Protein backbone atom coordinates (compact mmCIF):
# COMPACT_ATOMS: atom_id res chain seq x y z
CA UNK A 1 0.00 0.00 0.00
CA UNK A 2 1.35 3.45 -0.93
CA UNK A 3 2.49 5.71 1.89
CA UNK A 4 0.30 8.84 2.20
CA UNK A 5 1.62 12.26 1.29
CA UNK A 6 2.67 14.24 4.40
CA UNK A 7 0.02 16.94 4.35
CA UNK A 8 1.51 18.72 7.37
CA UNK A 9 4.21 19.99 5.01
CA UNK A 10 1.68 22.20 3.21
CA UNK A 11 2.23 25.93 3.09
CA UNK A 12 -0.19 27.43 0.57
CA UNK A 13 1.29 30.04 -1.74
CA UNK A 14 -1.43 32.68 -1.54
CA UNK A 15 0.61 35.14 -3.62
CA UNK A 16 1.17 32.87 -6.60
CA UNK A 17 0.08 34.43 -9.87
CA UNK A 18 0.50 32.62 -13.17
CA UNK A 19 0.56 35.87 -15.14
CA UNK A 20 2.60 38.42 -13.20
CA UNK A 21 4.99 36.37 -11.06
CA UNK A 22 8.66 37.12 -11.73
CA UNK A 23 11.08 34.21 -12.25
CA UNK A 24 11.80 32.40 -9.00
CA UNK A 25 13.49 29.19 -7.92
CA UNK A 26 10.03 28.16 -6.62
CA UNK A 27 7.38 27.04 -9.09
CA UNK A 28 3.74 26.15 -8.52
CA UNK A 29 2.35 22.93 -9.99
CA UNK A 30 -1.40 22.79 -10.64
CA UNK A 31 -3.97 20.16 -11.69
CA UNK A 32 -2.09 17.48 -9.75
CA UNK A 33 -3.42 13.98 -9.22
CA UNK A 34 -4.39 14.03 -5.51
CA UNK A 35 -2.55 10.70 -5.07
CA UNK A 36 0.74 12.15 -6.33
CA UNK A 37 3.57 12.51 -3.82
CA UNK A 38 6.74 14.55 -3.52
CA UNK A 39 8.61 11.54 -4.86
CA UNK A 40 6.56 11.69 -8.09
CA UNK A 41 7.50 15.37 -8.49
CA UNK A 42 11.17 14.57 -8.02
CA UNK A 43 10.98 11.89 -10.69
CA UNK A 44 9.25 14.20 -13.17
CA UNK A 45 11.28 17.37 -12.58
CA UNK A 46 14.81 16.18 -11.79
CA UNK A 47 15.75 16.23 -15.52
CA UNK A 48 15.53 20.04 -15.38
CA UNK A 49 17.95 20.40 -12.46
CA UNK A 50 18.47 19.69 -8.79
CA UNK A 51 15.23 19.90 -6.81
CA UNK A 52 15.91 21.30 -3.34
CA UNK A 53 12.42 20.76 -1.94
CA UNK A 54 8.90 19.78 -2.93
CA UNK A 55 5.61 19.73 -1.08
CA UNK A 56 2.20 18.44 -2.26
CA UNK A 57 -1.24 19.72 -1.30
CA UNK A 58 -3.58 16.84 -2.30
CA UNK A 59 -6.85 18.57 -1.38
CA UNK A 60 -5.88 21.58 -3.53
CA UNK A 61 -4.44 19.45 -6.34
CA UNK A 62 -1.33 21.58 -6.32
CA UNK A 63 2.28 21.53 -5.21
CA UNK A 64 5.26 23.80 -4.72
CA UNK A 65 8.70 22.84 -6.01
CA UNK A 66 11.94 24.62 -5.12
CA UNK A 67 14.90 24.20 -7.46
CA UNK A 68 18.48 24.77 -6.37
CA UNK A 69 18.98 27.55 -8.94
CA UNK A 70 16.94 29.89 -11.12
CA UNK A 71 18.28 28.37 -14.36
CA UNK A 72 16.64 25.02 -13.54
CA UNK A 73 13.30 26.66 -12.73
CA UNK A 74 13.44 28.67 -15.98
CA UNK A 75 14.27 25.53 -17.94
CA UNK A 76 11.17 23.80 -16.56
CA UNK A 77 8.84 26.74 -17.24
CA UNK A 78 10.29 27.39 -20.72
CA UNK A 79 9.80 23.72 -21.60
CA UNK A 80 6.08 23.64 -20.79
CA UNK A 81 5.48 26.96 -22.55
CA UNK A 82 6.19 25.25 -25.85
CA UNK A 83 2.80 24.26 -27.38
CA UNK A 84 3.55 20.55 -27.83
CA UNK A 85 5.46 19.99 -24.58
CA UNK A 86 3.96 18.68 -21.39
CA UNK A 87 5.13 17.11 -18.13
CA UNK A 88 3.24 14.25 -16.51
CA UNK A 89 3.23 13.74 -12.74
CA UNK A 90 1.75 10.43 -11.56
CA UNK A 91 0.28 9.84 -15.01
CA UNK A 92 -1.40 13.22 -15.37
CA UNK A 93 -0.28 16.31 -17.36
CA UNK A 94 0.12 19.27 -15.01
CA UNK A 95 0.42 23.05 -15.32
CA UNK A 96 3.30 25.20 -14.10
CA UNK A 97 3.98 28.82 -13.24
CA UNK A 98 6.53 30.77 -11.25
CA UNK A 99 5.67 31.44 -7.62
CA UNK A 100 6.16 34.80 -5.93
CA UNK A 101 7.67 32.89 -2.99
CA UNK A 102 11.46 32.81 -2.93
CA UNK A 103 11.67 29.78 -0.62
CA UNK A 104 9.37 27.03 0.62
CA UNK A 105 9.04 26.90 4.41
CA UNK A 106 10.33 23.64 5.89
CA UNK A 107 8.53 21.83 8.70
CA UNK A 108 9.10 18.97 11.10
CA UNK A 109 12.63 17.55 10.95
CA UNK A 110 13.51 19.39 7.73
CA UNK A 111 15.60 22.52 7.20
CA UNK A 112 16.59 24.55 4.12
CA UNK A 113 20.00 25.30 5.66
CA UNK A 114 22.77 22.87 4.63
CA UNK A 115 23.69 20.58 7.50
CA UNK A 116 25.68 17.41 8.14
CA UNK A 117 22.47 15.55 9.10
CA UNK A 118 19.92 14.44 6.50
CA UNK A 119 16.34 13.32 7.00
CA UNK A 120 15.26 10.69 4.48
CA UNK A 121 11.54 10.10 3.92
CA UNK A 122 10.76 6.75 2.30
CA UNK A 123 7.57 6.60 0.22
CA UNK A 124 5.77 3.36 -0.68
CA UNK A 125 7.98 1.36 1.69
CA UNK A 126 6.65 -2.09 0.79
CA UNK A 127 9.89 -3.80 1.87
CA UNK A 128 11.53 -3.61 5.26
CA UNK A 129 14.05 -0.79 5.53
CA UNK A 130 16.57 -0.64 8.41
CA UNK A 131 19.84 1.13 9.17
CA UNK A 132 21.91 -1.31 7.10
CA UNK A 133 19.70 -0.59 4.06
CA UNK A 134 20.20 3.15 4.43
CA UNK A 135 23.92 2.73 5.04
CA UNK A 136 24.40 0.76 1.84
CA UNK A 137 22.49 3.32 -0.21
CA UNK A 138 24.55 6.22 1.19
CA UNK A 139 28.05 4.84 1.62
CA UNK A 140 29.01 4.79 -2.06
CA UNK A 141 28.73 8.60 -1.93
CA UNK A 142 29.77 9.33 1.67
CA UNK A 143 30.04 7.13 4.73
CA UNK A 144 27.36 7.69 7.40
CA UNK A 145 28.45 8.14 11.01
CA UNK A 146 25.11 7.38 12.66
CA UNK A 147 21.67 6.30 11.47
CA UNK A 148 18.29 6.20 13.25
CA UNK A 149 15.14 4.80 11.65
CA UNK A 150 11.88 6.54 12.66
CA UNK A 151 8.89 4.24 12.18
CA UNK A 152 5.77 6.36 11.87
CA UNK A 153 3.03 6.48 9.24
CA UNK A 154 5.73 7.75 6.87
CA UNK A 155 9.02 5.90 7.34
CA UNK A 156 11.95 8.27 7.91
CA UNK A 157 15.65 8.02 8.71
CA UNK A 158 18.04 10.51 10.28
CA UNK A 159 21.53 10.10 8.84
CA UNK A 160 24.58 11.91 10.21
CA UNK A 161 27.70 12.53 8.11
CA UNK A 162 31.13 13.98 8.86
CA UNK A 163 30.23 17.38 7.39
CA UNK A 164 27.61 19.28 5.37
CA UNK A 165 29.53 18.77 2.12
CA UNK A 166 29.24 14.99 2.42
CA UNK A 167 25.57 15.29 3.34
CA UNK A 168 24.88 17.48 0.29
CA UNK A 169 26.70 15.01 -1.96
CA UNK A 170 24.47 12.18 -0.74
CA UNK A 171 21.31 14.32 -0.89
CA UNK A 172 21.92 15.24 -4.53
CA UNK A 173 22.77 11.64 -5.44
CA UNK A 174 19.84 9.78 -3.85
CA UNK A 175 17.00 12.32 -3.76
CA UNK A 176 14.14 10.84 -5.78
CA UNK A 177 15.80 7.43 -6.22
CA UNK A 178 14.10 4.09 -5.56
CA UNK A 179 15.79 1.73 -3.10
CA UNK A 180 13.96 -1.13 -4.82
CA UNK A 181 12.68 -0.84 -8.36
CA UNK A 182 9.32 0.93 -8.41
CA UNK A 183 9.02 1.44 -4.64
CA UNK A 184 10.73 2.68 -1.47
CA UNK A 185 11.34 6.09 -3.05
CA UNK A 186 13.68 8.45 -1.18
CA UNK A 187 13.02 12.13 -0.47
CA UNK A 188 16.25 13.51 1.00
CA UNK A 189 16.34 16.82 2.87
CA UNK A 190 18.69 18.56 5.26
CA UNK A 191 17.67 18.23 8.90
CA UNK A 192 17.83 20.86 11.61
CA UNK A 193 19.15 18.22 14.02
CA UNK A 194 22.65 18.99 15.27
CA UNK A 195 23.49 15.31 15.74
CA UNK A 196 21.94 11.84 15.67
CA UNK A 197 21.74 10.35 19.15
CA UNK A 198 22.11 6.58 19.55
CA UNK A 199 20.94 5.18 22.90
CA UNK A 200 21.07 1.53 21.87
CA UNK A 201 22.54 -0.54 19.05
CA UNK A 202 19.98 -2.48 17.02
CA UNK A 203 18.69 -2.77 13.46
CA UNK A 204 17.12 0.70 13.58
CA UNK A 205 19.82 2.52 15.59
CA UNK A 206 23.48 2.23 14.56
CA UNK A 207 26.57 4.24 15.53
CA UNK A 208 29.22 3.43 12.92
CA UNK A 209 31.90 5.41 14.80
CA UNK A 210 32.13 2.64 17.42
CA UNK A 211 35.02 0.28 16.55
CA UNK A 212 33.83 -3.03 15.18
CA UNK A 213 30.37 -1.82 14.20
CA UNK A 214 29.57 -2.54 10.57
CA UNK A 215 26.65 -3.42 8.36
CA UNK A 216 25.63 -6.80 9.74
CA UNK A 217 23.76 -8.17 6.77
CA UNK A 218 23.00 -7.34 3.19
CA UNK A 219 19.43 -7.09 1.99
CA UNK A 220 18.11 -9.28 -0.77
CA UNK A 221 17.03 -8.39 -4.28
CA UNK A 222 17.89 -5.71 -6.76
CA UNK A 223 17.96 -2.25 -5.29
CA UNK A 224 18.83 1.42 -5.71
CA UNK A 225 17.47 2.56 -9.01
CA UNK A 226 18.22 6.22 -9.71
CA UNK A 227 15.40 8.50 -10.70
TrEMBL record:
It comes from the Eukaryota. Pfam families: RRM_1, RRM_5. One of its GO terms (molecular function) is RNA binding. Residues 25-101 form the RRM domain. SUPFAM superfamilies: RNA-binding domain, RBD. Coiled coil: none annotated. Keywords: RNA-binding. InterPro entries: Nucleotide-bd_a/b_plait_sf, RBD_domain_sf, RRM_dom. PANTHER family: MATRIN 3/NUCLEAR PROTEIN 220-RELATED. This is RRM domain-containing protein.
Amino acid sequence: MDSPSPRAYYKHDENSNSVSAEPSIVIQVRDMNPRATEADLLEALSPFGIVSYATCVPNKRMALVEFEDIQSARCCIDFVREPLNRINVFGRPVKFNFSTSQRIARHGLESEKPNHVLVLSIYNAVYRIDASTICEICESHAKPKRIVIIRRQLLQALVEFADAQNAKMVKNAINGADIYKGCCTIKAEFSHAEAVTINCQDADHVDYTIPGVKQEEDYNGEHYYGS
